[in-house]
Amino acid sequence: MVTSQLRTLLSFAFFLIALNLHSQTWEVYDLQGKLKSLAIYDRIEVLSETVIIGKNEQGLSMLSPDLTPLVSLQGEEVFQYLTPWILVKGPNGIGAFHEYGLQAFPLEYDEITTYYNFLLGRKGNEYWLYDKGNGKTTSLGTWDDCKFSKYGILIGQKEGNYFLPGSKDPERRYQLIEENEGAYLLAKESTGFGILNFEGDYVMQPILSQLEHTRGNYFYGYDENQYLLIKGDHIRSDVSYNSYHKITKEGDLLLEYIHGKLRRVMEEDGILLDAVGMESVNVVGKNHYIITFRDKSIGLLGKKGWEVQPTIGLDWVKPGTEGLFPAGKSDKTGYVNASGQWIIEPQFSEVGGFSENISSFRNSSSWGLIGVDGMIISEAKWDEIKDFSGGIAVAKSNSGYFLLDKSGQTLNQEGFSQVCRLKDGYFLVEKEGKKGLLDKSGNEILPLEFENIQVEKPDFFIVIKEGLAGALNEKGDALFPIAYQEIVADWTGNQILAKDLYKPVIIQAEEVPQSGKRKKGA
């Protein structure tokens, strides 16, 4: 028979169990593997050197380095972290907190975008701007669309017109506002095209008949009967080159014609090449031009001048590496030097670029390796060969991916389904859904038996196996056994967080006799 006192104790125990049913214990270790403390959270995320987020029964919070709650984030999950802003999602929408803990927007917006100390929030078609400098939120009204440009200018669209709601003249209408990779906006009004700075002021008045962005802060324009190359400036744009001769722009190619004949290859702010007898110019990549002359000579022009001097006897030439340039003649390909001399005679269908004095070639659909002397290093049997780095290249065949040394020998006997060269020099390999890790020389560090491998630092790898997490070193020794729900490294705090299921300690209460007297020894 259960007494009222026992019922109370059991009810309290069940309450504790229910309270922590979904909670989990995080064990906090120092970098020497010594247990420092325990913390109860469902989830912990290290977002940056200074931002740690935790979630438990009390809610979502920013945490101190010792995992103590500092600021309640009032939501269910971190929607996005865009330094220095933490966007938090709740049942009624998205809100924003500064990484120092200040709440900027309540959790009620459909969308929030950021630009340094500014936030742009949207609810339906209504927009609000938050300025951390003064801590104020300003209503911007209703827009068809409103956004930050790359350099923080607010651009609004309404009824087919463009506006700059954050400028000195927010009511001014524009027919077009166009951003680009540079810091200045291309604008159009009824009077013509102009250029705006990041404060919304004209640095070139809207008077040009034609205007296009070229590259960086440069523009190509036309006004009445002269062609202009213009450089944007915060105060006043500079016409870096003007000409009454025709300048054409086709993609990245700017050409000037004098009396109807091609005479100059232009760059953004002036003349790149002035030569008589040019017949055609073709862009190769972003900064290279193949120049064909009327005497049938061909050269390769770069931003700093000729990379391959104009030479008769070439059908084409491409940008190269290590002083050798792929070139073609009579449907065959070889390599020339900067003077246009053949270093490797045209004998292949196609070649790649040299890396560590080795390149690839093919005469059919398969690729092989050649040296700088033109000698074949390995036969053509690969579907693809990537560049050498650290003495190793990655090659692909129908059997998978293989690592090749500089003699063309494979370093792995069986092919992988994927190979990824990591920035630390390791190779992350995968086969049949399992991942392994190779060192810089292609030797196995971790076998193909993990669902995931995360290289945190040299000699510290977080692994997932059969749904459990652990940490291993280069010898495969367990720094943390593969027995946790999750491992998180907090290098700034010099600690490793290991999550395990919460195991509540339940103290069983002994039944108290109805007489109210405890049994002897109880």
Which features does this protein show?
522 residues; mainly beta; four-stranded antiparallel sheet; 3% helix
Helix-strand blueprint:
Elements: H1 4-19, E1 24-30, E2 35-40, E3 43-46, E4 52-56, E5 59-63, E6 69-72, E7 77-82, E8 85-90, E9 93-98, E10 103-109, E11 111-115, E12 118-123, E13 126-131, E14 136-142, E15 145-148, E16 154-158, E17 161-163, E18 176-178, E19 185-189, E20 192-196, E21 202-208, E22 210-213, E23 218-223, E24 226-231, E25 238-243, E26 246-250, E27 253-258, E28 261-267, E29 270-274, E30 278-284, E31 288-293, E32 297-302, E33 305-312, E34 316-317, E35 325-329, E36 332-336, E37 342-348, E38 350-351, E39 358-362, E40 367-371, E41 376-382, E42 384-385, E43 393-397, E44 400-404, E45 418-421, E46 427-431, E47 434-438, E48 444-450, E49 452-457, E50 460-465, E51 468-472, E52 478-484, E53 486-490, E54 495-501
Antiparallel strand pairs: 1-2, 1-54, 3-4, 4-5, 5-6, 7-8, 8-9, 9-10, 11-12, 12-13, 13-14, 15-16, 16-17, 18-19, 19-20, 20-21, 22-23, 23-24, 24-25, 26-27, 27-28, 28-29, 30-31, 31-32, 32-33, 34-35, 35-36, 36-37, 38-39, 39-40, 40-41, 42-43, 43-44, 45-46, 46-47, 47-48, 49-50, 50-51, 51-52, 53-54
Protein name: WG containing repeat-containing protein
InterPro entries: WG_beta_rep
Pfam family, one: WG_beta_rep
Which class do the helix and strand fractions yield? mainly beta
Q: Care to count the β-strands?
A: 54
User: How would a crystallographer describe the biggest sheet?
Assistant: 4 strands, antiparallel
Uncertain spans, ≥5 residues at pLDDT below 50? 1-21, 516-522
Average pLDDT over all residues: 92
- Secondary structure tally, helices: 1
- Separation, N- and C-terminal Cα atoms: 18 Å
Compute the CA-based radius of gyration. Answer: 33 Å
Spatial strand order of the main sheet: 2-1-54-53
The shape is: flat
Strand content: over 45%
- Helix content range: under 10%
